[in-house]
Amino acid sequence: MSADTSIGEDPTPRSVLGRAFSLLSAFTAEDVELSLGELSERTGLPKTTVHRLTGELIGFGALERGRYGVRLGLRLFTLGEQVPRHRRLRDLAMPYLEDLYEATHESAHLALLDGTEVVYLAKVRGHRSAPTASAVGGRLPTHCTAVGKALLGVGPTEAFAERVKAGLPRRTPLTLATPGALERDLIATAERGFSVDRDETRMGIVSVGAPILGTGGRAVAAIAVAGRTHTIRIDQLAPVVQAAARGLSQSLAGPGGPPSRS
To answer: Is residue 235, in this structure, part of any structural domain at all?
Structure first.
């Protein structure tokens, strides 16, 4: 094996494809535009390389020029819409998310597990809904989000171990930041069938989640409803979220089955 493929020596991608992908991956759901300097800082790539690659990515439609820098392009959106398993899951989930919003007038969202994070696939909210940390296409850690804890609570122990190994950073003073505290919370989550994020991702916001189960009881995604701490009644909200999760799980068991993980 050549030195170029060794692990742990240089995290900066060396191939052109790897460097281009690292530029695209530098954007988060909160970013509208990034300057070339910000891209260089986030990726570790020289500014000359960033300038050259962003020019090519703009030509392909993967990036677009903005007023202050560059932003993700429409071509990426159209490609993302063609991912079959995510599209089917989202399409099946949307009626349940809309029902949850109509029943609660709070934000309802769908997410799936990706390593130590959750990726939000869909979100339904109104103009009066509480501002939450989730965004479609965005990522958040599993250990502090209701959707993340719903997935960890019924998932393999390896997922919990991977999250602990990656660290349990505090997003708020109430984030469960020790393995013992998180483990106890996940045990309670599995026993009652729903998860709770009490001001752990964002202060003033409570979220209640439940897993979406596929073949063999394996969790393939999770849904949750989030609202202001002083208005959310967990005991009233949890049965509603659980019922929606069961309904979506049954829909996935229909023709076509659950989305493949391959």
So the answer is: yes
Does residue 175 form part of some domain?
yes
Q: Which residues pair with 141 in a beta bridge?
A: 117
Domain of 232? 84-252
pLDDT digits (tens, 9 = 90+) for 17-41: 888 888 888 887 677 889 999 999 9
Q: Are 42 and 75 in contact (CB under 8 A)?
A: no
Q: How many domains does the chain have?
A: 2
129 and 36, same structural domain? Answer: no
Q: Compute the C-alpha angle 75/81/87, nearest 5°.
A: 170
75 close to 87: Cβ distance less than 8 angstroms: no
Instruction: Name the token pair of 140.
Output: 């958040």
Helix (H/G/I), strand (E/B), else coil: 186:
helix
Q: Is residue 6 part of a domain?
A: no
C-beta separation of 24 from 72 below 8 A? yes
- Decide: 110 and 100 in contact? Cβ < 8 Å: no
Take residue 166 and report the two structure tokens written for it.
Answer: 């990656």
Rounded Cα gap, residues 211 and 256, in angstroms = 19
Q: Of 28, 48, 73, which closes a domain?
A: 73
- Match 């409570």 to its residue by tokens: 206
Do 168 and 182 form a contact (C-beta atoms < 8 A)? yes
Please say whether the beta carbons of 197 and 149 come within 8 A.
yes
Exposure pattern of 192-215 as b/e (b: 16+ CB <10 Å)? ebbbbbbbbbbeebbbbbbbbbbe
Is the residue at 152 inside a domain? Answer: yes
pLDDT tens for each residue of 223-254:
999 999 999 999 999 999 999 999 999 998 87
Distances (CA, A) of 245 to 81, 101, 169: 23, 14, 28
Please give the single-letter amino acid code of residue 254: G
